[in-house]
Design brief:
The complex is a heterodimer. Chain A is about 35% helix and about 15% strand. Chain A has helices at about 40-50, 85-90, 110-125, 140-145, 155-175, 230-240, 260-275, 295-310, 325-335, 350-365, 380-385, and strands at about 10-15, 55-60, 100-105, 130-135, 180-185, 190, 200-205, 210, 225-230, 245, 250-255, 255, 285-290, 315-320, 340-345. In chain A, α9 (about 325-335) crosses α10 (about 350-365). Chain B is α/β, with parallel strands linked by helices. Classes of the chains: A alpha/beta, B alpha/beta.
C-alpha cells in the first residue's frame, strides 16, 4: 500500500508550453508536428504529459501577433500563429485532474471584466486548478491590431501600473460574490442574498469597473496570479498583484543580466518590502530553457545544430545538458531559496518527455519534488497557498 | 410531393431568467461544470445540431437593487463552450458575444480558436448593445450612441469576416524539410479603417475548419431581419406561433435573394419551451405547475413593476391588476427605468396600453395579478404527450413556420432528458430528424453549403 503523500512539494516543477517548443527551429525537428499545434490533440497530449510528469502546473504562452518572436513578421520560414491561450486552457482542463493550468493574459489590450470571468470559469471547469500569467504589451504591432491607443505614448511604468489595476479588478470581481451568496430560499423567492453580492467600484487611470461579477466566486476563491520579472518594474507588479513570480536566474533581461538565483530571490523580497506587500510572500520560481540529451556534449551539439537553422535568443538562461546537469542546477536553486523552476522545453517533442520521464523522477529521488500525485486538489493546495477569505465578507 | 424537410434542433442551457425553475428539487447547479457536461451530452446523445449559451455582462437590477428572484451567475460562455468541446464530439457549440464591449481582433481570435479546438463546431450569436448600465463594467463605458449600435455590430461582423478570410486555406505549409512554414509571408495581413475600427496587421490564426464560425443573429426587428438576411447562417426569433411563424419565415426567406443568397442559406429557428406528460391532461397540469413555479408571487410583482415603472411592493399579487396607470415619463432607454439590464422591458413600448390589456383580462376572467402575468408571459410553446409535441414540431417545419427550434427547458441540468428520450425518437421515426450525425462540422449539421475558400472567392 502506498502511504498518503503530501500534495505539497518542497520544490515545484512547472513547464512552460509554447507550440513546438521555445527554440525557433523546434518546428523542424522530427516528430514536432508543427501543423498540428492548431488542433486540440497536440495540446491535450502535452498537458497530459506534464501531468504524468507530476508538474505542479503548466503555463501557456500568448500574444496577439502572428509572429511568435518580434522580428519574425513577414518571414515565411518561421513558425507563426497562436491560438488563444485561455481557450487552450479550457480545452485541456477537463482532460486532466491534477495539474494546474496557467494561461498567459495580455493586460494592455483586454478587458479586466472579461478576463476575470474567463479565469473564474477555468477555475470552475478544473475544480480549482486555474491560474493566469499577467503580461504587459509594449509592441507596436500589437497596438495596431487593436487601434485604440498609440504605442510609445505611455511609459513602461504606466503600463505595469495598468496591469496591476487589471489584476486588482479581477481579484475584486472574484470576491464580489461571497461563497454563500446563492441561497435558493423558496419561502421568500430569493435565489441569492443580495447583501452578499458587492459592487467593486474600481476607478483607475485606464478603466473604471462597477461590478459585481456575473460569475460566482471560483472554487479557489482567488485563482493563482503569476508574473514574469526581469527588472524592478516587473518585480513591483508581481509584489503588488501576483502570487507567484517567475525570475530568470543567470539570464538576460531587456536591461542586462538578471543575476543569479539568490539575486533574483532578493529582488523579489525587496520589491515586496517596497510595495508594502502583506499576506503570503511571493512564491519565487526560476525560469530555465532546457535542451536535454544523454550527455552535455550531445546536448550542446544539438543546440548548435538548431541554432544554425534559426538562432535562439532567450531571456532565461539556456541549459543544454544532461538530466543530471539540469537536476544539479535546480538543486542549487532550491538551496538558494527558490521554491520552484519553470522549464521551457527547447524542442517539445524531445525535451518535454525527457523532463517528465527522466528529470521528474530524478528530482523526486533527490527529495525535491513529489513522487506521486495525492488526491486531486486545487492549485493553491499544491503550492501551499491558503484559500483567501473574501475581502467583502463581514463575519 | 415536397421532400420531407429535416428539422434542426438546438438546446439552450437554461439561463438567467424567471423561466428557469430553481426551487424544484430536480434543479441542480447553474455553475458547476458537471451541469454543463450533462446538458451538452444529453443534447449530443439526442443528435441536436447545437448547444446554445446566452450572455450577460451585468447583473440585473430593479428598483436600484440587484434583482434576486431569478437564477443568477453564469460562466463566461465561450470559455465553457471550449471546455465542453473536450467532453463532446459532434454537437455544435454556439454562444452569444456582444459586439459593443469587445474588440474585433480578440473576438475573431477567440471564435476561431473555438472552431480550431472543436474541429469545426463553433457558432457566434452576434448581439448589439449600447446600454450604459452594462458599459459600467468595461473600458469604454457607455459612450456608444444608440444610433451606432447596429453600425458597430455590422462593422464588428464584417471585420471579423475579413480577419477569418485573411489566410489562404492552405496558408500553413509547415514543411520541416524545406523550412517553409507559411505559404505566403503576408498570410493574415489585413487593414480596416471604418467608423468604429482603425486596425491593421496580421491575424494570428490560420483559417479555421469551418472557414469561419456559423453566424447567428437574433432578429425580430426590421433591422435585425435585414442584418440576418445579409450576413447570418441562422436567425433566432420569438415567433413560435404557427401563423406568425409562417409570416416571419416567408418574410425573412424572401429577403435572401436580394443579397444573392439561396433559400436554404439561412435557417430560421424560433425559441421554444415545452412541457411533456403521459396524457394531454397530465401535460396540461404539469405546465400549470411549472407556470406557477416560474411566476411566484414576488416575480409577478416584479413583472408588473417592469410595466408600471413603479415600486409595487405594496400590491397584492393575488389581488386584482392595479387600477392606476404606469409611470411613463422615463423612457426605457433613458436609463431612468426601474428595471435595468433587461432587454425584454423594451417590448412594453406602450405601458399604458399594456396595463389596460392586463386589467381587462383580469376583470373579464376574474384573474389575479399573478394569474394575468402567467397568462401573458408564462405560456409554453409545446405542451402535450411526446407524440403530440413531435407532431406539432414536425408540422411547424414541414409547413414552413420554421426550420426547427431552439429549445429551452426549465430545469438544469436534466431538463432536456425526457425530450431526448421520448420526443426525439418519434421525430426520427417520421424521417424528419437525423438518427446519426452525418458530418463533423456544425455547417454540415445545419445543411449549409461549404464556404468557398478565399482563393475561390477572389477568382
Amino acid at each position: 500500500m502506498t502511504p498518503p503523500l503530501p500534495a505539497m512539494a518542497p520544490f515545484h516543477l512547472a513547464i512552460a508550453l509554447d507550440g513546438t517548443g521555445w527554440h525557433p527551429a523546434s518546428w523542424r525537428e522530427p516528430g514536432a508536428r508543427p501543423a498540428d499545434q492548431f488542433g486540440a490533440d497536440f495540446w491535450v497530449e502535452q498537458v497530459r504529459e506534464a501531468e504524468n510528469g507530476l508538474a505542479t502546473f503548466v503555463t501557456i504562452e500568448d500574444g496577439f501577433t502572428a509572429a511568435r518572436v518580434p522580428g519574425d513578421e513577414g518571414r515565411s520560414d518561421r513558425a507563426q500563429g497562436r491560438l488563444d491561450a485561455t481557450l487552450i486552457a479550457q480545452r485541456v482542463g477537463p482532460t486532466t485532474e491534477h495539474v494546474g493550468i496557467v494561461p498567459t493574459v495580455v493586460a494592455t489590450h483586454t478587458e479586466p471584466f472579461h478576463v476575470s470571468t474567463q479565469i473564474a470559469t477555468l477555475d470552475w471547469v478544473t475544480s480549482g486548478r486555474a491560474g493566469e500569467r499577467i503580461k504587459v504589451s509594449t509592441g507596436d504591432a500589437e497596438y495596431a491590431l487593436f487601434g485604440r491607443r498609440q504605442p510609445g505614448t505611455e511609459s513602461r511604468d504606466a503600463l505595469f501600473d495598468e496591469a496591476a489595476d487589471h489584476v486588482e479588478v479581477q481579484r475584486r470581481l472574484w470576491d464580489s460574490w461571497e461563497d454563500d451568496a446563492e441561497i435558493r430560499d423558496v419561502a421568500t423567492g430569493r435565489f441569492v442574498d443580495r447583501d452578499k453580492l458587492h459592487y467593486i467600484d474600481f476607478v483607475g487611470t485606464h478603466f473604471a469597473v462597477r461590478g459585481p461579477s456575473i460569475t460566482p466566486r471560483p472554487p479557489q476563491g482567488q485563482p493563482v496570479v503569476t508574473a514574469l520579472a526581469h527588472v524592478d518594474t516587473a518585480y513591483r507588479l508581481a509584489a503588488r498583484a501576483a502570487d507567484v513570480v517567475f525570475t530568470t536566474p543567470d539570464g538576460t533581461g531587456r536591461d542586462g543580466p538578471t543575476g543569479d538565483a539568490a539575486t533574483t530571490l532578493a529582488a523579489a523580497r525587496a520589491a515586496e518590502r517596497e510595495v508594502g506587500r502583506t499576506g503570503e510572500p511571493l512564491v519565487v520560481v526560476g525560469d530555465l530553457l532546457v535542451l536535454l540529451d544523454d550527455d552535455a556534449a550531445g546536448a550542446r551539439a544539438q543546440l548548435s545544430r538548431l541554432d544554425a537553422v534559426a538562432p535562439l535568443r532567450s531571456d532565461a538562461a539556456v541549459l543544454a545538458g544532461s538530466v543530471t546537469d539540469v537536476a544539479d542546477t535546480l538543486e542549487s536553486w532550491a538551496a538558494a531559496g527558490l521554491t520552484g523552476a519553470r522549464l521551457r522545453p527547447a524542442v517539445a517533442t524531445n525535451d518535454l518527455p525527457r523532463i517528465t520521464r527522466e528529470l521528474a523522477p530524478e528530482l523526486a529521488r533527490r527529495g525535491l519534488t513529489r513522487g506521486a500525485w495525492g488526491e486531486p486538489g486545487s492549485l493553491r493546495d499544491l503550492l501551499g497557498l491558503p484559500r483567501p477569505a473574501d475581502r467583502y465578507a463581514h463575519a | 410531393m415536397k421532400p420531407r424537410k429535416r428539422i434542426h434542433l438546438a438546446a439552450h442551457f437554461p439561463g438567467v431568467n424567471n423561466t428557469t425553475v430553481w426551487g424544484d428539487p430536480a434543479s441542480g447547479s447553474h455553475i458547476a461544470f458537471s451541469s454543463f457536461r450533462h446538458f451538452a451530452q444529453t443534447a449530443e446523445r439526442a443528435k441536436f445540431d447545437f448547444l446554445f449559451l446566452a450572455e450577460g455582462l451585468r447583473l440585473r437590477e430593479q428598483g436600484g437593487r440587484i434583482y434576486d428572484l431569478d437564477v443568477m451567475g453564469r460562466p463566461d460562455n465561450v470559455s465553457i463552450l471550449m471546455a465542453l468541446a473536450a467532453v463532446t464530439d459532434r454537437i455544435g457549440l454556439a454562444g452569444t458575444v456582444n459586439s459593443t464591449f469587445n474588440e474585433p481582433l480578440d473576438v475573431a481570435r477567440k471564435l476561431a480558436t473555438l472552431d480550431h479546438l472543436s474541429a469545426g463546431r463553433a457558432a457566434w450569436n452576434v448581439v448589439t448593445s449600447w446600454d450604459e448600465f452594462t458599459g459600467e463594467n468595461f473600458r469604454r463605458g457607455g459612450y456608444l450612441p444608440k444610433d451606432k449600435r447596429y453600425l458597430r455590430a455590422q462593422e464588428m461582423l464584417s471585420t471579423a469576416q475579413a480577419l477569418w478570410d485573411s489566410w489562404d486555406s492552405d496558408g500553413i505549409v509547415a514543411d520541416p524539410a524545406s523550412g517553409e512554414f507559411l505559404r505566403r509571408p503576408d498570410e493574415g495581413a489585413f487593414e480596416i479603417h471604418s467608423d468604429q475600427f482603425d486596425i491593421a496587421g496580421r491575424f494570428p490564426l490560420p483559417r479555421s475548419p469551418q472557414g469561419r464560425p456559423v453566424i447567428i443573429q437574433a432578429g425580430d426587428s426590421e433591422e435585425g431581419r435585414e442584418f440576418a438576411a445579409h450576413s447570418a447562417d441562422a436567425i433566432f426569433t420569438r415567433h413560435a406561433e404557427f401563423t406568425a411563424g409562417q409570416e416571419f419565415y416567408a418574410d425573412v426567406k424572401a429577403r435572401l435573394a436580394r443579397f444573392g443568397r439561396r433559400h436554404e442559406d439561412l435557417k430560421i429557428l424560433p425559441a421554444a419551451t415545452f412541457v411533456l406528460g403521459d396524457t394531454e391532461s397530465e401535460a396540461a397540469e404539469n405546465a400549470r405547475q411549472v407556470q406557477y413555479q416560474q411566476v411566484g408571487p414576488q416575480t409577478a410583482i416584479a413583472f408588473a413593476e417592469q410595466v408600471w415603472n413603479l415600486d409595487l411592493s405594496d400590491v397584492d399579487p393575488d389581488g386584482p391588476v392595479p387600477s392606476f396607470d404606469p409611470k411613463t415619463e422615463d423612457d426605457v432607454d433613458s436609463g431612468g427605468h426601474i428595471s435595468k439590464g433587461r432587454a425584454s422591458v423594451r417590448m412594453y413600448r406602450d405601458p399604458v396600453a399594456t396595463a389596460n390589456e392586463w386589467r381587462e383580462l383580469g376583470e373579464a376572467e376574474g384573474l389575479s395579478l399573478r394569474e394575468v402575468v402567467i397568462r401573458k408571459n408564462g405560456r409554453h410553446t409545446f405542451v402535450g404527450t411526446p407524440q403530440r409535441v413531435a407532431d406539432t414540431i414536425d408540422r411547424f417545419v414541414q409547413e414552413d413556420a420554421s426550420d426547427g427550434f431552439v429549445l429551452v427547458p426549465h430545469i438544469t441540468p436534466g431538463g432536456m432528458d425526457a425530450f431526448a428520450d421520448q420526443v426525439v425518437p418519434l421525430l426520427q421515426e417520421k424521417g424528419s430528424f437525423r438518427t446519426e450525425y452525418e458530418g463533423t462540422t456544425l455547417r454540415e449539421h445545419l445543411g449549409l453549403a461549404p464556404l468557398r475558400s478565399d482563393a475561390l472567392a477572389q477568382s
